[in-house]
Amino acid sequence: MADAALPVRRGVLGFLINARGARAGRLHWTDWFTYLYLGLGLIVMFGPVLWLVLSSFKTTGALEEFPPTFLPYGQAYAEVEGHADPLPLFTVTHEDGTQQVMAQIRRLGIVSQMVDPADPDAGWIRVPIDQRVPYREFHFAVENYTFLFDQFNFLRYFWNSVFITVVATLITLLFNAMAAYALAKYDFKGRMTIFIFIIATLMIPPTIVLVPTFLVVSEMGLLNNPWGVIWPAVATPTGVFLLRQYMLTIPDDLIDAARMDNASEWRIFWRIIMPLAAPALAVLAIFSIMWRWNEFLWPLIVLSRSETFTLQLALNSFQGDLLTQWNYLLAMTVLTLLPITLVFAFLQRFITTGIASAGVK
Amino acid sequence: MLRFGMKRALTATVALGALMAAGGAAAQELRYMCYQDGIECDVTRALLDQFEAENPGITVVVDVVPYQAILDNLPVQLAAGEGPDMARVTDLGGLNQHYLDITPYVDAAYWEENFGATLDWLRSGADDTGIYGMMTQLTITGPYVNATLYELAGMEMPGDGATWDDWAESTRAVAEALDVPFPMAMDRSGHRFAGPAMSNGAAYFDDNGDPILVDDGFRDFAATFVGWHADGTMPVDVWGGAGGGTYRDAFAEFANGNLVLYMSGSWQIGRMGSDIGDGFDWVVVDNPCGVAGCTAMPGGAAMVAFAHTEHPEAVASVIDFLAQHDIYSSMMAQTNQIPAHIGVASAGVDFTAGEDAAAALSVFSDQVPNLLPPAFALQGYRFNRAVYNATVTRLTQAIVGELSLDDALMRIDQDIADALATAEQ
Amino acid sequence: MAVMSSPERPSPLRFLWKPLEALMQAVLNTVEIPMRWAQRMLGQQKIAWVFLLPNLLIFGLFTYLPIGVNFLYATTGGTNLWPGDRPFLGMDNFEVLLDCENYLDPATCRRDLFWVAVYNSAQFVVLQVGFMVTFALITALILNRKIIGRGFWRSVFFYPVLLSPVVVALIWKWILQREGVLNAALVGLGADPVNWLLSPDWAFFWVVFVNIWFQMGFYTLILLAGLQAIPPDVYEAAEMDGTKPVRVFTRITLPLLMPTMIVVLVLALIRAVQAFDEIFVLTGGGPGSATMFIVQYIYETGFASQIQQFGIAAAASLLLAVVLFILTMLQLRATRRQMNG
Which stretch of DSSP H or E encloses residue B106? Predict the structure, then answer.
């Protein structure tokens, strides 16, 4: 009786505690559930991103098309003898019900003049327009991308984004680690107050202090300057919190031993604490890179000269008052996604270990 | 000795460097903050190459920015005493306090003669005679009609003097005959709404020039408009699909043949040509009429100069250069816009978008004589965007059933009163 | 908690290490000179202030100073940017916002949209945080199993976190519009298309859904980390005793996961109250005002309107800050009591 119940129990228990899976020879229902969930997750989480990438290869016409196609398609054209420009192709349903791909010479009202592209000498016939549908073929609108490099200062914006992201991230790591160290390893009056003072800033949505912050930055003369984006961003409550929690797990003995050796406090911080906090620093690095790279509203307020623009600003300059050039905007969006995806691919294995040891004290 | 020589050489180098720096300072770099719906800034940039060749020492940097920067960032920058020398703005009257009057540097008679009507839009009031810039894009609202659908249905479009009700009935018949989802749609914009409302008798302003939004004319058209959404004459998507003052157009529906009539404006012409292509025939028709008239709404963007610039004369010369007949004409031709320059308008523009576009643009131009006085007044009103926002926000709530029409109208009045009270504090 | 030992391979960026180390050494030596001096002056414990200084300066300048300015805005009127040029109004702005006949019915309030936004936000916070934490927990439990390609699956669920809010909104807008991908799929399956963003309830649902989609990965990883930190011998002991699995989950897993859960809840709550960008682009607050939340109200009133009512916006933001503060304190107090008890 007990033996019979055990596998089931092990299954459910295993699902909840990570004890099953590969160990058992055959697949239990929890395994089925797991892979079903993961499969669904793949579609829901990744499908929309794939859709974005495919859409970036569509022409403006195809983007507005209803119903949308998953893959980029475009109207097919054919060179027809006797016509200077390529003619659009249509699938025509003849009166006898047969279908044929024909080229359209011109359309007059509700009637088209169509010609057989293979046999142009046979002359044209009249086809009512509701008897024809556009013949379409697979078409990657690569021009969306080439435009960005040919006629658009993509590399300049890319460099601006990289500069702001890298410099801001380095400073963020340094400053936040310093503050975290002070809060984790020193005992001084007002420590708790300062900690709350820093954490409380989490509660201020940046959007609502936009105007006053603008005034401060403007008074400091940092408008149209990448530092106007960098300085306000380098102190983050999340970073201080994450690093402090991690540093609390570093044994005090290490620090005491170093002090015995007459190391300065700064040397201890730099030589002992920083290397030991590496996993947490990696997590913060990913977040900081992500935040700075994607930031839009604040750079929009601070930077208004195009040579200082970041990618996010440049890609939004395809948005006008009345019209938006979606094809370029999408292509550029995909390009801005690439670097951050690469960074993530490199650093992702640090994320869980970093958070595992930091976030949960 | 050697030491002394080196020092002298060093001094000379420093002096030379200072001299060159001074020369650099004399070269005037101007900043033009520009947004574009299509290629407007690129065209301006190309024309400015010519200006720079003729005016050595002045360079103009065209900063192409997101429209949101013009809307949100520029006013704050100007208020803080920062910002570019020139910008392409749509909030024509609202930014007036920051404008530079270029009258001393230009031929005022030429400007008055050619830009007469639109100069007022940039002015603060009736007693302001300054010249602050020029319209680089003059737009006129009006309906596009899918002529192919009419042909397929074998019906005739309503003729001259047709009212909005005539069009509603006619487009409904076409939609029903061909199983087209929607007879009509209008961009989600208080500016688009204002024309038909005025045609139906909405005055928008009292005799003192103060805004009175909700009068009988406004109320009537608002009721009709909400009714059209309720009975399916208009798709709820466009207005109902968003909240607040967010702009939304119905171009995609029209381009896909799901609409018979699309109330938008002259700026869509380029897109009609490129995106619809051979799909169907579209025409622009006269603005439908109401009891008070058949008015469109004018609109557009202006290139203006700001008073804080260090080089007022250079800035004025840039704008004046672009305002000259040939240059302006070329700009209009390349961007396919209706000229605001009377000389250019009467001489005709060789539009690049082709015959269809030229025909459509001429229909739009023909609307100008029909504009009712409040249409001009609203376009030139400092706080017109506050009026548009309140209209859109509240009427949407009525369309989706959050508010009754009466409550929505009451809230429109109140929103504007609150905003104006803040502005006057 | 012990530092996790991880069986990871050495970094592929090893070749960068040498020059980087030289640079680090240089920074160490340069900064050490003034720091040694400071240490002599202040003593060993007080030097903490020197470590804190850069952060405090930045928080002071770019967060607390603006908050101070916001206080000035909240008590003044007009449209002027400089606090000194604005007429003093006292508590008028707060009174305008709080002017209601019946607080439960926004239509009776002078600023009806403010109250609509407040109630929408409250509803959003409860639903979004509740569902997101639940799904994040399920996902973390699944990712914690011995599955094939763990790193890959972890990345799949985390990837949307990397996107910018605007991109997230644009993608979903295309999927959800009347003739978008989702409706195309529904029609393909023979169902009727639904106007997802036109019905207030559906629009609200999708706003919640998209926010969960966007942020869940972050919280999943935190929870996953928490799960991995639970020592396996606890479970083995439970299995030996024949404890029922559900009981193991409620009596062992959940309590041990509680500290992580608190962090997740606090962070998720704060983020949910501040939700703005992705919703603004997705629905613009619509249909009507069905998905208009508090930050959007503040943004539109104070910033994105022609007549910028900074005073009202600042007053609303201060009210929001007070509410957030109280909520966080309550949450922390509740957890502290639980931990102690």
Answer: none
Domain limits for position C214: 121-292
Q: Report CB contact under 8 Å: A110, B148.
A: yes
ipTM of this complex: 0.83
User: Which residues in B350-364 are b (16+ Cβ under 10 Å) and which e?
Assistant: ebebeebbbebbebb
Give the whole-angstrom CA distance, residue C295 versus residue B389: 18
Asked, for residue C80, whether it belongs to a domain, the answer is no
Q: List the CATH number of the domain containing C177.
A: 1.10.3720.10
| Burial zone of C246 (CB within 10 Å; 0-12 exposed, 13-18 middle, 19+ buried) | exposed
Q: Which two tokens stand for residue A180?
A: 């975290």
Q: Number of folded domains in chain C?
A: 1
**Domains along chain A?**
73-138 (2.30.30), 145-358 (1.10.3720.10)
In angstroms, rounded to a whole number, what is the distance separating the alpha carbons of residues B317 and B305? 11
- Contact between C132 and C264 under an 8 Å Cβ cutoff? The reply is no
Question: In sequence order, what are the residues at sequence separation of 6 or more whose Cβ sits closer than 8 angstroms to the Cβ of residue A26?
Answer: none
Report residue B70's pLDDT band, with 50, 70 and 90 as the boundaries.
Answer: very high
Task: Work out how many CB contacts closer than 8 A connect B with C.
Answer: 112
What gap in Å lies between CA C151 and CA C158, rounded to an integer?
Answer: 10
Report yes or no on C203 lying in a domain: yes
Residue B105's pLDDT band (cuts 50, 70, 90) = very high
Indicate whether C216 belongs to any domain: yes
Among A19, A51, A191, whose Cβ lies nearest the Cβ of C181?
A51
pLDDT greater at residue A108 or residue C167: C167
* Identity of the highest mean pLDDT range in A338-352, B3-17, C23-37: C23-37
CB C307 within 8 A of CB B422: yes
User: Taking the domains of chain B in order of start, what are their residue ranges?
Assistant: 29-138+299-362, 140-298+368-424
Residue C156 domain-assigned (yes or no):
yes
Burial status of residue A47 (CB atoms within 10 A of its CB: 0-12, 13-18, 19 or more): middle
**Whether pLDDT at B25 is above 70:** no
Distance of CA B307 to the CA centre of its chain: 23
CB contact under 8 A, B148 and A322: no
Would you identify the CATH topology of the domain B140-298+368-424? D-Maltodextrin-Binding Protein; domain 2 (3.40.190)
Q: What is the DSSP letter of B58?
A: E
Q: Tokens at residue B410, please? A: 């009451």
Q: What's the pTM? A: 0.86
Using alpha carbons, list the distances in angstroms from residue B346 to B284, B329, B331, B339, C198. 21, 11, 16, 9, 46
Distance separating alpha carbons of residues C96 and A243, to the nearest angstrom: 43
Which chains have at least 3 CB atom pairs separated by less than 8 Å from chain A?
B, C
Find, among A297, C304, C272, C97, the residue nearest to B393 by Cα: C304
Helix, strand, coil % over all residues of chain A, rounded to 5? 60, 10, 25
Peptide bond between residue C287 and the one before it cis (omega within 30 degrees of 0): yes
- Chain C closest-CA separation from residue B339 CA (Å): 27
DSSP secondary structure code for residue A308 in this structure? G
Q: Over range A297-307, report the average pLDDT.
A: 89
What is the rounded average pLDDT of the residues C320-339? 76
CA distance B63 to chain C (A): 21
The CATH number assigned to the domain with range B29-138+299-362 reads 3.40.190.10
- Residue length of chain A: 361
Q: Which residues of A touch C172 (CB under 8 A)?
A: 48
